[in-house]
């Protein structure tokens, strides 16, 4: 079972200003439609940029529906030993449905 965070849990943690590292693994054209902030690192670029990330911070991986971010989580966990990873369950689509109805969907 992958470590996950629900959109509502993420909203609460962001509202509490917890020091989270948000990594969105979608493509730039998807990011342009909507994003939760953080850093855009498309999944195909993650292996090149993994060393630039802070291993000590809790990292939330984000994509459209949660599948690519799950792949990113496994990669960072297994190949780079990241200990504090969370997958946004349902991705930005779930965020729009569960947290912010005004958030763009595609």
From TrEMBL:
InterPro entries: GlpE_sulfurtransferase, Rhodanese-like_dom, Rhodanese-like_dom_sf. Residues 16-104 form the Rhodanese domain. It holds the Pfam family Rhodanese. SMART domains: RHOD. PROSITE patterns: RHODANESE_3 (PS50206). This is Rhodanese. It comes from Rufibacter immobilis.
